[in-house]
Amino acid sequence: MGFLKKLFGIGVTAGATVAAVKVAEQVKENNPDGVQDVNGDGKVDAKDYFEEVKKAAVEVYQEATSAIKEKAPVVTQKAKDAAEDVKEAVTNAADTVKEKAPEYVEKARDAVTNAADTVKEKAPEYVEKARDAVTDAAATVKEKAPEYAEKTKEAVLGAKDAVVHAFEKKDSEPKE
After folding, report:
1. What residue numbers bound the domain in which 106 lies?
2. Does a structural domain hold residue 171?
3. Nearest to 24 by CA among 44, 45, 53
4. Is 101 inside a domain boundary?
5. pTM as predicted
6. Does 50 map to a domain?
7. Total structural domains within the chain
8. Residue 175: what pLDDT?
9. Engineering a disulfide at 56: which of 27, 38, 99, 123 sits with its beta carbon 3.0 to 4.6 angstroms away?
10. 155 inside domain
């Protein structure tokens, strides 16, 4: 916000400077021989100069106002034309979307249909592969079960023997 505030301040200062220069030029134009006794008090003083500055400021203001009134319709028309161009561009884009939407909907529908057809076509193959994998796993378990049962039995008996041996050793130690 600080940048915009400074920029606005610069703009105001520049505008005020231009206005002051225009007022000074208007005072010169109105008084080519210098400021005269405007208020009729018989002497040329600051009051006369202030009256001339006020008169010149009013004239500059009126010129600026008439220039704005003169240019306003042109600027307004340019803004209307720009708005119409934007409206036309948006309308054209909307028309294009409306025009192309059925085509894209059809493409999406075809893609979904193709995917569904592929799944239907490949489903029996995938079911067969799954059935084969489960059958193979079951055969392996059935084949290896006696071997694993024997190894498990040996491990349990070995653990039992280790526990019994540990208790026997503890019982055989001299008590203090």
Report:
1. 2-131
2. no
3. 53
4. yes
5. 0.41
6. yes
7. 1
8. 62
9. 27
10. no
